[in-house]
Amino acid sequence: MEETGGDGFDAESPSVTRMSDGYDFSELKVLVVDDSFHMRELVRTFLEGFGIKDVDVAPDAVEAMEMLPEKDPDLIITDWNMSPISGLDFVNQVRNGVESVPNRFVPIIMLTGYTEMKRVEEARDAGINAFVAKPISAGSLYKRLVSAVQDKRKYVESDAGYFGPDRRSPKRSDFKGQERRK
Amino acid sequence: MADARFIQPDRHPSQKVRPGGPSMEAAILSAVNAADDLIGQYQGWAVDDLEKLWQAFIETSQKGRADPVRLQELYDMTHEARGQGGSFGFPLISVVGDSLCKYLDGLHRLKARDLDVIKVHILAMKAIFRQELKGQQGGLTKELHQLLGLFRQKVEARR
User: Fold this and answer.
1) In chain A, what are the domains?
2) B94 touches chain A (CB under 8 A)
3) What CATH number should be reported for the domain holding residue B140?
């Protein structure tokens, strides 16, 4: 295994705080992708209520892909069940780094009513960072937002075709035994 | 074993987030207040969406059968209702929608009994809106969840 890193972020960044201490999210740029007008407006309104000033919305993944080069968001929140491209295919396109994608490492939160284990694994394999199960609340979205800010996992690019967040538990990062994951 | 490279991204959202914002409670309260109007409008358009689901069900009933495309349509409409109900203050809609999604999931064709089950679920959602049953309604959300689970079990056992 090879480990690479650019300038990276400081894992002990002073900007990270406890959830209860409160965050200033005002500089974040977020893109919300959902084919339901009402759901994406609800998510946008919640995010703006948290203090995020730059929230863009897209009604489908095609438009979202077109917006990415200009908007270059710090975080994407996407629905799963959309057409003509599903949320899962959208995640694949971002993670595979098609030409128009400015940041294939962008954290992606999937917003979905699909909560069956099979579906969760499918989304995880596509490279999402986190799930928010519908129905959503301001509380559940806030907690996921904070998790995305606090989650400093590395990303993995595997010859088996996976690209996305390291799925190993951080508690086991010092594991010295035989690597059985393929 | 497949080879893998571990990469530390140059960019991370934490670089743009600072401490000192409102507390979690204040941020959530602010978000809930901001969404008040939107949540207030939900029932109006959700009733329209439910009517579309009802019409799709009526057409299916009249044909007496449903192809996979129509079944998927029914599932998708129910799935939307399930996700939206609780998000907009009607968790009972999510409970009934969730039950119908579970029933429809993996169904390849419809029998008369299946039509009855679908009908009961849609009528229940209509009643919830008609009676404006917002919020958890005491223990009703939990009780309804359990009752619908038993109902599905009973019907599925007789398939």
Assistant:
1) 37-136+146-158 (3.40.50.2300)
2) yes
3) 1.20.120
Q: Which residues 11-40 of chain B have a CB within 8 Å of chain A?
A: 11-24, 26-28, 30-35, 38-39
Mutate which: A9, A53, A118, A142, vs B, most B CBs within 10 A: A9
How far apart CA B78 and CA B72 sit, in angstroms, is 10
Question: Is the pLDDT at A10 greater than 50, yes or no?
Answer: no
What mean pLDDT is predicted for residues B55-69? 85
Q: Domain limits at B62?
A: 42-157
Q: Where are the beta strands (DSSP E) in chain B?
A: 4-8, 18-19
Q: How far apart are CA A140 and CA A76, in angstroms?
A: 16
Cross-chain residue pair A15–B2, CB shorter than 8 Å: no
Counted across chains A and B, CB pairs separated by less than 8 A come out at: 205
- Residue type, position A33, single letter: V
Q: Provide the pLDDT for residue A173.
A: 52
Q: Do B94 and A135 touch (CB under 8 A)?
A: yes
pLDDT bucket at A97, cuts 50 / 70 / 90: confident
How many whole angstroms separate alpha carbon A6 and alpha carbon A69? 21
* A86, amino acid identity: S
